[in-house]
Amino acid sequence: MTELEDFIRQARTHGMDPGTIRMVLLAAGWKDADVAETLARQTLDLPIPRPRRTAGAWDVFRNLLTFGLLFATLVHAVILGFGILDRLFPDPANFQAWNIDPEENLSGLRFSLATVVVTFPLFLVFSRLGLLEGERRPESLQTPVRRFFLWLTLLVAAVTVLGNLIALLFFFFEGQLQGLTLVKMGLLLVLALSVFAYYRLVMRLEEQVAQ
């Protein structure tokens, strides 16, 4: 039995009516939703049904666009980073690199740079809109579509980290581990771990807000 439940039970035992109990607990800093749920559960002796969280068209659109912008930013950030590293530290053993048109390669890097410059600020804007919407409507943080994309993002980040660790050991066992390979894997790990840590923190904060 929690502290809240124990207090309400003792207060009812002493003849205090639910309205007075509610006012006392709210004055002490308890959340109205927690007080109302505990009072109803003890009075009715029934579990309180939770409303079904549904996502409206705007919620679906915002989440699709937000996570789409995130994945576009990450993919092109990796392409841009790898491309810059390949130009700064060319591999003489990579004969295919000598057959690539330098201008064509630069064109791809410019496209990735343009994509990151456009998508990353938009991702920040729509993420902020989601937080503001969550403050106004906490139930929007727990919709199935948002939870799906959150867990999908965590899954992709975790798989990326595991894949890089496996590849790192594989190249080490093969004796083919090079400095450039380590830098590229480090870039992937930093991005994946940053995304994983950020969204785990976001999920914890959203769960607290939704309670």
Compact summary:
With 211 residues, the protein is mainly α. It contains seven helices and no strands.
Structure classification? mainly alpha
CA-based shape: elongated
Helical stretch tally: 7
Nearest-integer average pLDDT = 81
Termini, distance in Å? Answer: 18 Å
Number of strands: 0
Percent helix: over 70%
How much of the sequence is in beta strands? under 5%
Kindly describe this structure:
This protein is an all-alpha fold. It folds into two domains: 3-44, no CATH class; 57-210, no CATH class. It contains seven helices and no strands. The protein has helices at 3-13, 18-27, 32-44, 57-88, 102-136, 144-174, 179-210. Helix 1 (3-13) crosses helix 3 (32-44). The longest helix has 35 residues, at 102-136.
What does the secondary structure layout of this molecule look like, with pairings?
Elements: H1 3-13, H2 18-27, H3 32-44, H4 57-88, H5 102-136, H6 144-174, H7 179-210
Helix pairs in contact: 1-3, 2-3, 4-5, 4-6, 4-7, 6-7
List key phrases describing it.
211 residues
